[in-house]
Amino acid sequence: MNFTRSFSFMFEDKNWAVKILLGAIFNLLTLVLVGIPFVLGYLLELAKNSSQGKEIPLPEWDNLGDKFTRGLVYLIILIIYSIPGMILSFIPCVKYCLGPLYFVALLFILPYITVRYAQTGSFEEIFRFNEIIDFTKKNINNLIIVVLLTIALEIIATFGVLALVVGVFFTMFWAYLAIYYLYGKVYREGQEAEGESSGPEPENQPTTS
Where are the domains of the chain? Predict the structure, then answer.
């Protein structure tokens, strides 16, 4: 699995500048919350494409109603999964250890949860805990790298604040693209290791219209 490609794959799309600009605008709208479902819906589509080997082109900023709806449901899923960690964070004796540990553990299962929902659109699918645990155990080495890269990408993205502050919305969206690309890839590799087909062969070259 080529982890480093996550940093640059998006630039192979001939329209990458426009798509990232639009992503940054929707990312800016997350400050007033309305942009969150749109961004998440777009990233779900990216993760789904990545899991099927369709890396390029990046998803279009179309079907915004569908992106909003799917992104909103995914946001609810993330909130549900975050509730135990938030509860632990309010318990005096454990909030400084178990709370943070829970959210770190959550990073390891997010790739599976994200891609399963992106592929199926099923709320039920992402609460099949036996399958989630089984996937995590079998792919723990790749998941460790994905989690470390996720943390590194988010740290790198904060440097966008140096570009007149607004630059952080571009760098954060770039980081999201890389992270959800990795989600799709680690899921695909896990499925292939199980002998299951998860889509067509990777398309590493940009397509032309």
Answer: 3-190
